[in-house]
Amino acid sequence: MMYGYEWDTSSTLAFATSILPILGIGLLVTLQAAAVGYAIALVFGLVLALLRRSRIRAISWTVACFTEFVRDTPLLVQLFFLYYVLPDFGIVLPAFMTGALALGLQYSAYTSEVYRGGIDAIQRGQWEAATALNLSRFQTYRDIVIPQMIPRIVPSLGNYLVSMLKETPVLSVVTVLDMLGLANMIGERTFDYLVPLSMVGLIFLPMTLICSALIHLVERALPKSGIPLR
Amino acid sequence: MTWMQYLAPLLKGAQITVIISLASIVLGTILAFAAGIARTSSNPIVSGIAFVYIVLFRGTPLLVQLFWFYYALPLIGISFNPITTGIMTLSLLTGAFGAEVVRGALLAVPVSQYEAARALNFSKTYTLWHIFMPQAVVEMMPAFGNLAVQNLKDTALVSLISIADLTFQAQSLRNITLDSATVYTLTLVGYFIIALGLMLIVRLIEMKLRRGAAFSRSAHS
Amino acid sequence: MTSIIRFQNVTKRFGALTVLDNFNFEVQQGEKVTLIGPSGSGKSTVLRILMTLEPFQEGKLELAGLSYHEPNGRGTFKASEKHLHKIRSNVGMVFQSFNLFPHMTVMRNIVEAPIAVLNMKRDEAETRATELLRMVGLLDKKDHYPSQLSGGQQQRVAIARALAMRPRVLLFDEPTSALDPQLVGEVLGVIRDLAREHDLTMLLVTHEMRFAREVSDRVCFFDKGRIVEQGEPEKFFTNPEQPRTREFLSSILNT
């Protein structure tokens, strides 16, 4: 029994249906972790991308190295790092937050590259035209750069959301009771891993497929010329 | 224990990580070509099987796949040792992602190349391997480089099915020493160095391929 | 004289669009025929059908005594791959955009098919390729890659590549349209030399009117999927009968 739900191991189908509500609770945790992690990645990635464009060499170089390092090392080890090292510095976070932070950190390295590519793709003439029109740096970003960036970066950012969603099960390793964590517990108690693990896979599959399809739709719906912010 | 003493167990783990990563990159690449070519087949059964495989492995989390092969499959009487399970799962995942790369690169070869090959009466197989593949492979290399690094990062998960890879050794070390910061920093650096090595290998292969064929895409556009 | 190519009431559609409409056309062995007409009139489609790059829906087509539709043929081409292979062994094609294989040297571009398809020995294939390269004036480029050549040079290699398969019929699909004006001459020169070969049947789609007049035995004017007018070049260009032909010729000669 878990969260007040009994499981029924009389048949495969009965077992599968009886654990569905439990996995549903885990699904909520999975989605929350992805949401928090993605929010961190979107914001922190933008910070990284802007710092990368800093005119101060030391800053842009440090950020470039940091981004590359985070991109090329495993999420699991980064997660362990945060989970065990942060408390040594007096920062004690719930496992869920540590997990979301690790996801956000790893994916901010990816999103920062997306932002950077998006900014670099703006033609030089656009910047020159903005200067010629005497727009301030802020106005240039708000009215010229970002509107043209959006249709270029949204598809890539969307794909990273799907990737991140598929990596959330790693959080179960640090005791987060997401779908996989719960499926493993059910497996331990019933000695039947086949059904709960297969269920987790079967729940993930339509989720990722639908997400990918939605991203594709959004990608096609976005005007290629750009989206004015006001 | 000083950090120097951590190196011996970590290096032992790194060896396992490198072996698993290289093995699954090679096997995954073979799978990627098989499935990618199958996807372009005009036979609906062949391309259908490849499609299901690709969707299944791209659409589900690696950790779920790994646990499924490790914990669930033995329950229906199929079991492998952890190393085999790890390499198999990673190969299947890399193969599924790589298949899309192969397919994309094959579809990117201009249709005019197909027409020229047909006009010269080459067979379909010959056209695929001698006309399309040499042109497509060069275009695949950057994507395969990314996949190789992704594969390396993914190998960390095999520590969870009791394989003594780099991450596993790091966990053991931390449990003994409680020196988390040093152990995990060294581990991350270890992965980073292996990743740099992998990227270097991919770059070298790409350069060799490009030199072997001093051609550019613009030549026949 | 025997017909080597015979279209009988051939109809070719792309979806709702009819490209060839009850098309009838015959070519004699060794004849050099130029196909001209506005774009979209179906002249390139004739070549592409002959090369089996496009299927057609209705009618009969024969090349060197081989029918394009087999009695029990299936698939889009209504013929087996083996049969299409047999047809293609009589035909070569030179494309507008050359379509050389970018990953092969000039020499390999030419010997690849004779070795792989005709099972020719490498020595023999290379001797023959050397001869052909000398003919098109590019022997010194044999170890270059296509990207290192000019458009005109690439097209001359493409002609050599097609000839290496010893086709009885050679199709030219706007061979100079993708070239810079100053490179057109060298390609036309090669084709002019080829036109002297008595046995080779040539079908040429081109916009080079003066050249068409010079090398062809017959000029065919295409419009809307049919041949509106055809005849000897001298008469065709000086005194066309159909108003549509006159209109087309004056529009093209005045630009």
From TrEMBL, chain A:
ABC transmembrane type-1 domain: residues covered: 27-215
Keywords linked to the UniProt accession: Amino-acid transport, Cell membrane, Membrane, Transmembrane, Transmembrane helix, Transport
InterPro entries per record: AA_ABC_transptr_permease_3TM, ArtM/GltK/GlnP/TcyL/YhdX-like, Ectoine_EhuD, MetI-like, MetI-like_sf
Lineage: Bacteria, Pseudomonadati, Pseudomonadota, Alphaproteobacteria, Hyphomicrobiales
Compartmental location: Cell inner membrane; Cell membrane
Family, similarity comment: Belongs to the binding-protein-dependent transport system permease family. HisMQ subfamily.
Organism listed in the record: Microvirga puerhi
Transmembrane segments: 12-29, 35-51, 170-187, 193-218
Taxonomic superkingdom: Bacteria
Protein name: Ectoine/hydroxyectoine ABC transporter permease subunit EhuD
Secretion signal, residue range per the UniProt entry: none
Gene3D superfamilies with a match to the protein in the record: MetI-like
Membrane topology value: Multi-pass membrane protein
Major location category of this protein: membrane
SUPFAM superfamilies recorded: MetI-like
From TrEMBL, chain B:
SUPFAM superfamilies membership: MetI-like (SSF161098)
Compartments it resides in: Cell inner membrane; Cell membrane
ABC transmembrane type-1 domain span: 14-202
Sequence intervals crossing the membrane: 16-38, 50-71, 83-106, 127-149, 181-202
Keyword terms: Amino-acid transport, Cell membrane, Membrane, Transmembrane, Transmembrane helix, Transport
Membrane topology reported for the UniProt record: Multi-pass membrane protein
Main location (coarse class): membrane
Pfam families: BPD_transp_1
InterPro entries: AA_ABC_transptr_permease_3TM (IPR010065), ArtM/GltK/GlnP/TcyL/YhdX-like (IPR043429), Ectoine_EhuC (IPR014342), MetI-like (IPR000515), MetI-like_sf (IPR035906)
CDD domains referenced in this protein's UniProt entry, alphabetically: TM_PBP2
Origin: domain of life: Bacteria
PANTHER family membership: L-CYSTINE TRANSPORT SYSTEM PERMEASE PROTEIN TCYL, MEMBRANE COMPONENT OF AMINO ACID ABC TRANSPORTER
Protein family: Belongs to the binding-protein-dependent transport system permease family. HisMQ subfamily.
Full protein name: Ectoine/hydroxyectoine ABC transporter permease subunit EhuC
Gene: ehuC
UniProtKB/TrEMBL annotation, chain C:
Domain of life: Bacteria
Major localisation: membrane
Topology of this chain in the membrane: Peripheral membrane protein
One Pfam family of this chain: ABC_tran
Coiled coil: none
Keyword Nucleotide-binding appears in the UniProt entry: yes
Keywords: Amino-acid transport, ATP-binding, Cell membrane, Membrane, Nucleotide-binding, Transport
Domain ABC transporter: 5-249
UniProt-listed InterPro entries: AAA+_ATPase, ABC_ATPase_HisP-typ, ABC_transporter-like_ATP-bd, ABC_transporter-like_CS, Ectoine_EhuA, MetN_ABC_transporter-like, P-loop_NTPase
Locations listed in the record: Cell membrane
GO MF annotation terms: ATP binding
NCBIfam families, alphabetized: ectoine_ehuA
Similarity comment: Belongs to the ABC transporter superfamily.
Matching PANTHER family: AMINO ACID IMPORT ATP-BINDING PROTEIN (PTHR43166), GLUTAMATE_ASPARTATE IMPORT ATP-BINDING PROTEIN GLTL (PTHR43166:SF9)
Record's protein name: Ectoine/hydroxyectoine ABC transporter ATP-binding protein EhuA
Source organism (scientific name): Microvirga puerhi
Native organism taxonomy: Bacteria, Pseudomonadati, Pseudomonadota, Alphaproteobacteria, Hyphomicrobiales
Record gene name: ehuA
